[in-house]
Specification:
8 strands; single chain; 4 helices; 8-stranded mixed beta sheet; 21% helix
């Protein structure tokens, strides 16, 4: 566990907290128009369920969370899945979100840095993600070392090489 100067701490998420990944998955969906949000049931789609279904049962499932004001307010997790940011079966894929009231405090950056350090300590070679081009998080991902390796009309594919950093 790490206590950060901005009064939050980063720690491993406990197994009994994994059901919170439902909330974090919904929060992770980039929805720029806050007046017209997708229904929460959208996370039941199979292409989204791969990020959280039975989390903690696979060897490549790792999750860190941020705690502030006595509650979990953010999470970053990785899995080896066929998700939006998949680049091969040897690469884990990031998912991250921080609740709205706790954004712009450096929590997302701290979560990513801690997860990158964890993945390096576990000898992962790389990790990836897909992100909407319009998502402000693109800057943060670049800041922590991810690089754009491809793009579609709406998304960037990003990767971080963990072997030599």
């Amino acid at each position: 566990m790490t206590l950060c100067e901005n009064k939050y701490k980063i720690r491993e998420m406990r197994h009994d907290e994994y059901p919170m990944l439902n909330d974090f998955l919904y929060q992770a969906i980039f929805q720029p128009d806050k007046t017209n949000l997708a229904p929460r049931s959208v996370i039941e789609r199979p292409e989204l369920q791969v990020y959280i279904k039975d989390f903690g049962t696979k060897k490549d499932d790792h999750c860190l969370c941020a705690e502030a004001d006595g509650k979990v307010v953010g999470a970053v997790w990785v899995r080896n899945i066929d998700g939006y940011g998949n680049i091969g079966n040897a690469t884990v894929e990031f998912a991250i979100s921080v609740f709205d009231d706790y954004q712009q405090r450096g929590i997302g950056t701290a979560l990513m840095r801690h997860m990158i350090a964890l993945l390096k300590s576990l000898h992962y070679h790389q990790a990836s993600l897909a992100v909407q081009k319009a998502n402000y998080a693109v800057r943060m991902y670049k800041k922590v070392g991810l690089e754009i390796i491809g793009d579609t009309e709406q998304e960037f594919m990003m990767i971080i090489n963990l072997s030599n950093k």
